[in-house]
Amino acid sequence: MRLVLLGPPGAGKGTQAARLVERFDIPQISTGDILRDHVQDGTRLGIKARSYMDRGEYVPDALVVQMVMGRLGEPDAEKGFILDGFPRTVPQAEALERALADVDRPLSCVLQYDIPDDMAVRRLSNRWTCPTCKRTYNLEFKPPAREGVCDFDDTPLERRSDDDELTVRRRLAVYREQTAPLQRFYSARGLLCVIDAQSKEDVVTERTLAVLADCS
Ligand code: AP5
User: Fold this and answer.
1) Mean pLDDT across 63-71
2) 102: Cβ–Cβ under 8 A, 6 or more apart, which residues?
């Protein structure tokens, strides 16, 4: 199965992707996580990416496309993948489409998770993340068992630097300008499935699995 997860910041792409990894045993490829690792490691890519990410803007297409194509070439992606946060622009979608056509492995489905802006702000202002295993928690909806530490590896949880309200509002605006056009792009190819993501995580997962049952 080769999936793309679309949706505004806070829609739950990462949360649902982690569940799909367990269910289908295919890797989650999160461009946000990969870029944050580069920033943390101080690589050349990370140094370039950081200023865009801190402002809530997108990292330039050429940098992200090259990074994702390298990752898709790794052995674990041969059996399928879940792209979380890529593509986000029409040029990125076109580059992905060309690359997959070259190896005759088209996308199975594009899942579009939708929530209203105020819900995105509320979710993200309560999000805490484990820097080791990348699991996310939410003080309001999914708190860790022990305050401030990851349930799985005891690592102290962190807040993302782009989760303050002003930056989240900017990310939502950038999403509307640059990523919303992908709905038409994928709808025209018969790949788009829209999922209401306002409900509890389990309910959203049930909706996702129902959609995937119909996709090749
Ligand atoms: P990225 O890390 O991809 O951020 P994003 O797309 O803004 O998405 P988020 O990770 O904030 O939200 P999510 O939908 O995954 O929600 P989550 O599951 O965590 O990208 C960050 C930056 O990197 C970009 O701004 C850009 O600069 C750069 N970048 C990345 N990809 C790029 C690309 N392709 N091109 C250019 N630049 C790129 O859930 C959020 C919270 O809600 C959590 O606390 C969770 O516990 C909670 N939650 C989830 N589901 C539910 C639910 N159903 N009910 C209640 N709470 C829920």
Assistant:
1) 95
2) none
Task: Record the pTM.
Answer: 0.95
Whole-number pLDDT of residue 150: 97
Which residue among 138, 151, 158 has the greatest number of ligand 1 atoms within 8 angstroms of its CB, and so is best to mutate?
A: 138
- Of 43, 39, 25, 208, give the one whose Cα is nearest residue 109: 208
DSSP 167-192: HHHHHHHHIIIIITHHHHHHHTTT-E
Q: Which amino acid is at 74?
A: E
Kindly report whether the peptide bond that precedes residue 87 is cis, defined as omega within 30 degrees of 0.
yes
Q: Is the CB of 141 under 6 A from ligand 1?
A: yes
Asked if residue 14 lies in contact with residue 39, where contact means CB atoms within 8 angstroms, the answer is no
Cα-flanking dihedrals φ and ψ of residue 149, to 5°?
A: -130, 150
